[in-house]
Design a protein that fits this description.
mainly alpha; Rossmann fold; Tyrosyl-Transfer RNA Synthetase; 2 domains; 10 helices; 50% helix; elongated
């Protein structure tokens, strides 16, 4: 974004936002009012709002954690006579550590989501089979607990979207294999203690590996993709 016009738009957005509104919007970037911030970081909300209009976006499809950015965009658009974007917000998958409480619902959402700056909270699309299995086995998944259970969320929002059914493999001693055709029946069994966390995690790790493996192999076998991947890995992630 080296164009003068872009930065002019950023400043226009910033002039239409108060300091208090900007500070409250820092959760967009996973920052909070208590954090020690640089002056540059205060520009992030204005830059994100400017991006909406720079890209000429009519519909903003983003996660629920980006709701405040879209509301700021609509607010500034009304003041400047720009076309207001239509926001569509999607469910945010829980991080593997489960719900991390914040001082309010919005801060809780931001703290609880998967984050690239916390590798233990998420599964990468290039994850090795061993690391993927280790992360799922370490994930927050208390027996019979449905609310705030990231392993069940993977089943609900990913695995049942990709599969007509999911089969939990287990010895006859523990009830033998069982196939679930809907998430509702799987959740019911888990809530009633008929499905053990260890068996659930094993199944989820196996199914996720099927989805991740083709992507991982592409980056391993394609020279250009592998070079790009190594370059991206060299970048330092900050919070």
């Amino acid at each position: 974004m080296n164009r003068v016009e872009y930065w002019e738009r950023v400043l226009t957005v910033a002039k239409n936002l108060t300091i208090n509104r900007t500070i409250k919007s820092l959760t967009i970037a996973g920052r909070f009012q208590k954090d020690k911030l640089t002056t540059a970081q205060y520009f992030y909300p204005s830059m994100q709002v400017a991006d909406i209009f720079e890209l000429k976006v009519d519909i903003c499809q983003l996660g629920m954690d980006q709701r405040r950015a879209n509301m700021l965009g609509r607010e500034v658009a009304g003041k400047m006579g720009w076309q207001k974007p239509i926001p569509i917000h999607h469910h945010i998958l829980l991080g593997l550590k489960g719900i991390q409480k914040g001082k309010d619902a919005e801060e809780t959402l931001v703290k609880s989501k998967m984050s690239k700056s916390d590798p233990s909270s998420c599964i990468y699309m290039h994850e090795t089979k061993e690391t993927l299995e280790k992360k799922i086995q370490s994930a927050f998944c208390p027996p019979k607990q449905v609310e705030g259970n990231p392993v069940l969320e993977y089943c609900h929002y990913i695995l049942f979207e990709e599969n007509e059914s999911l089969t939990v493999e287990r010895s006859q001693k523990y009830g033998s294999n069982k196939t679930y055709k809907t998430y509702a029946t799987l959740e019911k069994d888990y809530a009633e203690g008929l499905l053990h966390p260890a068996d659930l995690k094993t199944m989820v790790a196996q199914e996720l590996e099927k989805l991740v493996k083709p992507v991982r192999e592409y980056f391993e076998k394609n020279k250009e993709a592998k070079k790009l991947y190594e370059e991206v890995k060299s970048y330092q992630t900050t919070r």
